[in-house]
Design goal:
By secondary structure, the chain is of the alpha/beta class. It has helices at about 90-95, 135-145, 170-175, 205-215, 230-240, 295-300, 340; strands at about 15-30, 30-40, 50-55, 60-65, 75-85, 105-110, 125-130, 150-160, 180-190, 200, 225-230, 250-255, 275-280, 285-290, 320-325, 330, 345, 350-355, 360. α4 (about 205-215) packs across α5. Residues about 1-15 and about 255-270 have low confidence and may be disordered. The structure holds FE2/S2 (inorganic) cluster.
Length: about 375
């Protein structure tokens, strides 16, 4: 079928990949799945990762990251899930304009929010999600159940109403298929009278109650993956801290801060000294002048050096690099764990050099 809409990339940061929409699925009143013709072979990815979609609306380029809802282990075709955001240009465009047969330009898969799977693992994984934060977790759960046949998986999923529960019937089928290995619990904050499940806000105490009832001997030995708005992430983090779960066992992704709220990442720091940093990207070493207070990414883009990026808010990790020498400050980082920081990972969109010898490797 010849596509009616070709969504053009105006300023490429790297070669885009074209994906053809095979199917649109209305998951809930405000959530759709876009399933593509393409498969893992054309765009490799890991469960939990996202891709960046580029669209041109009224001659302006927008890029937004959307998590894969497909699993590389269980689904043939790539798919992403998109929740409509009030006032969100891109999500509304994808909901209202694109259709089956259209082509989207995307950047390759990225993101660190992904479990390392091993067929011999025998462990417990607990997933906590809120709203459309279920998308990467849906992908991960399918992969874990398929690969780690000795591991147990639990899901605690918060929504407002029953109509808002995404992938509800698939989770019910998975629970039947993997009885004894997978269990999930929905929590609704605005449940109707017909709802027989758990209702109320998913807060710190509710999470602790749930975890203490799981048939695992030591909740602190489980691995936790959390994807939710900021409030639920904080509640889950506090609950896990109270239960003395080591930080290394907690993995989280916050999607609430990236929903179309444009902030200027260059205005958040106090650093006022101008510096020059070196950045290696695609084998080329660039010298980039960073005026005091500006981020490395912003400075590079102003010099027309097209480094990779997407959200520009320190959320998506599309701009992830490794600081090989020198020191980079990232105020407000809530994405990279201490373990990742210790390995030298930095985000150029919120990173500012605080020494004169900064060398960053983006390859
Ligand atoms: S561009 Fe998204 S974290 Fe930097």
């Amino acid at each position: 079928m010849k596509p009616d809409i070709l969504i053009n990339l105006m300023i490429p940061m790297t070669n885009p990949i074209k994906l053809t929409i095979k199917e649109r699925i209305q998951e809930t009143p405000d959530t759709i799945t876009l399933r593509f013709e393409e498969t893992f072979d054309e765009l490799p990815y890991k469960s939990g990762q996202f891709l960046t979609v580029l669209v041109s609306i009224n001659q302006e380029e927008y890029r937004r990251e959307y998590s894969f809802s497909s699993s590389p282990q269980t689904d043939t075709n790539l798919s992403i899930c998109i929740k409509r955001v009030t006032g969100g240009k891109v999500s509304n465009y994808l909901h209202d304009v694109v259709k089956t047969g259209d082509i989207l330009n995307v950047f390759p898969a990225a993101g660190l929010f992904s479990p390392i799977l091993n067929i011999s693992n025998k462990r417990t994984l607990v997933f906590i999600a809120g709203g459309s934060g279920i998308t990467p977790i849906f992908s991960m759960i399918k992969s874990v159940l398929a690969i780690e046949q000795q591991s147990k998986v639990y899901l605690l999923y918060a929504n407002r109403t029953e109509n808002d529960i995404i992938f509800k019937s698939t989770f019910e089928s998975l629970q039947t298929k993997f009885s004894g290995r997978f269990n999930h619990l929905n929590v609704l904050s605005q449940a109707s009278e017909k709802w027989y499940g758990l209702s109320g806000r998913l807060d710190q105490d509710t999470i602790i109650d749930y975890l203490e009832q799981l048939p695992v001997i030591f909740p602190k030995e489980a691995n936790y993956y959390i994807c939710a708005p900021t409030g639920l992430i904080k509640a889950a983090q506090q609950a896990l801290t109270i239960l003395k779960v080591p930080a290394a066992n907690i993995h989280k992704e916050n999607f609430g801060s990236s929903n179309n709220q444009e902030i200027n990442p260059t205005n958040t720091g106090n650093e006022i000294i101008d510096r020059t940093v070196k950045v290696k990207y695609k084998g080329i070493i660039h010298s980039i002048f960073v005026a005091g207070g500006k981020s490395i990414l912003k400075s590079a883009l102003e010099e027309n050096i097209r480094l990779p990026f997407s959200c520009e808010k320190g959320v998506c990790t599309a701009c992830l690099g490794t600081c090989k020498t020198g020191k980079v400050e990232m105020k407000g980082n809530d994405t990279l764990s201490q373990n990742e920081l210790d390995k030298g990972y930095i985000l150029t969109c919120i990173g500012k050099p605080v020494s004169d010898d900064v060398f960053i490797d983006l390859d």
